[in-house]
């Protein structure tokens, strides 16, 4: 089975689908941070230095072991030359 087939099978459970949907925003944010950091040629340590935090904080954020505050996400965004925007649809 490939990833999409496993996902389709798991999503047959409404509980699994709800949990996935609830976490999707956080996964998307973390994915974008990783992509931006890598595209700018920054290591986790370099990004941490710009933000004014420890490399371990960036690692925990990217691995999903830490749910950041809006303030911390804003610092990350500015360090990556971006602006944090939050929208409700």
3D architecture notes:
With 89 residues, this protein is mostly helical. The protein is built from five helices and no strands. It has a domain at 19-80: lambda repressor-like DNA-binding domains (434 Repressor (Amino-terminal Domain), Orthogonal Bundle). It is 69% helix and 0% strand. α3 (44-51) packs across α4 (55-63). It starts with a helix and ends in a 10-residue tail after the last helix. The mean pLDDT is 93.
Highlighted features:
434 Repressor (Amino-terminal Domain), mainly alpha, 69% helix, single chain, 89 residues
CATH superfamily of the domain at 19-80: lambda repressor-like DNA-binding domains
Counting H and I runs of at least 4 residues, what is the number of helices? 5
Q: What is the H/E string?
A: HHHHH
Query: Sheet bearing the most strands, described?
Result: none
CATH class of the domain at 19-80: Mainly Alpha
Provide the residue-averaged pLDDT: 93
**Poorly predicted residue ranges:** none
CATH arch. level architecture of the domain at 19-80 = Orthogonal Bundle
Given the C-alpha coordinates, what overall shape results? elongated
Residue share in β-strands: under 5%
Oligomer: single chain
State the distance separating the first and last CA atoms.
Answer: 34 Å
Binned, the helix content reads: 55-70%
Task: Say what the CATH topology of the domain at 19-80 is.
Answer: 434 Repressor (Amino-terminal Domain)
**Cα radius of gyration in angstroms:** 15 Å
- What would you call the structural class? mainly alpha
The total count of strands amounts to 0
